[in-house]
Write a structure and sequence with these properties.
The protein has 215 residues and is mostly helical. It folds into two domains: 149 residues, no CATH class; 64 residues, no CATH class. It is globular, with a radius of gyration of 22 Å.
C-alpha cells in the first residue's frame, strides 16, 4: 500500500523531469551485477526513461558495457521505431550505427509525435554512417543542414482539426473526379489551422534561426 501511495502522490504532485533526474542519478551510481536485469520495461517506458537508461549503459566501462550491449540495442530499437521508422531493414542497419547521442540529437529537433518520415530517416542515417566511417578529408566536404522534424502524427492532427479526413479516399476516385476536387481541397488545406503544438514548435525554430541571423 505504501508503494502505491508513493507512486500516486509522486505522479500527481511532482514534475516528470524530477523523476527522470532521480532515475538518472540512481542509474549512474549503480554497479551492474554479473547478470544484469533492466530496471525498466523497455516497451512500456517513456522516451525520457529510455534515453536515461541508454545513456547510463553507454557510460559504462568496456567490460561492463559488453554485458549490457543487448539491453542497449533493445533500447535503440525501441527509440528508432518510436521516432524514425518501423521498417525492419532500416532498423537492422540503424541500430548498428546510431548511438544514444545521435538519437537524442533527433529528439531535441522533433516537433510533435509520430515518426519523422522516410526521407529524413534516410538523410540522418546516411549522415551518421558517413560521419563515423569516412576519413577526415572527406568529412571536410560533408555538410548536412541543421534540420527539424515534424512527426507524422502532426499531419493526421491537422487533417482531423480541419475536417480534411473526408478526402482520404481520393486515390480511389477516377482521374476526372480527382481533378474536379483538387481546387477545393487545395483551398481547404491552405486555409487550415495548424495545431497549437505545431505552431509553438515552428515559433521556437524561427526564434532560433532569427536569433542566429541577427548575431
Amino acid at each position: 500500500m505504501r508503494d502505491h501511495l508513493t507512486d500516486f502522490y509522486f505522479a500527481h504532485n511532482l514534475p516528470h523531469t524530477l523523476f527522470e533526474d532521480l532515475l538518472r542519478q540512481t542509474l549512474s551510481q549503480r554497479v551492474p551485477p554479473q547478470d544484469i536485469v533492466p530496471s525498466i520495461h523497455t516497451e512500456l517506458a517513456t522516451l525520457g526513461m529510455l534515453f536515461t537508461q541508454g545513456e547510463a549503459y553507454e557510460a559504462l566501462e568496456h567490460e561492463e558495457r559488453v554485458r549490457v550491449e543487448h539491453h542497449l540495442e533493445q533500447i535503440k530499437v525501441v527509440l528508432i521505431k518510436a521516432m524514425i521508422s518501423d521498417h525492419l531493414e532500416y532498423i537492422g542497419i540503424a541500430k548498428e550505427w546510431f548511438d544514444i547521442a545521435d538519437l537524442q540529437a533527433i529528439r531535441v529537433r522533433w516537433i510533435g509525435s509520430g515518426k519523422i518520415g522516410g526521407k529524413a530517416a534516410g538523410v540522418m542515417l546516411a549522415e551518421c554512417v558517413l560521419r563515423k566511417s569516412s576519413d577526415w578529408d572527406f568529412l571536410q566536404h560533408l555538410c548536412v543542414p541543421q534540420s527539424w522534424f515534424l512527426g507524422a502524427d502532426m499531419f493526421y492532427q491537422f487533417a482531423e482539426l480541419n475536417g480534411l479526413h473526408v478526402h482520404a479516399d481520393q486515390k480511389y476516385k477516377s482521374e476526372a473526379e480527382i481533378r474536379a476536387d483538387y481546387p477545393t481541397i487545395q483551398d481547404q488545406f491552405r486555409e487550415g489551422r495548424l495545431p497549437d503544438e505545431i505552431v509553438e514548435g515552428l515559433r521556437m525554430i524561427l526564434e532560433r534561426v532569427v536569433g542566429r541571423l541577427n548575431r
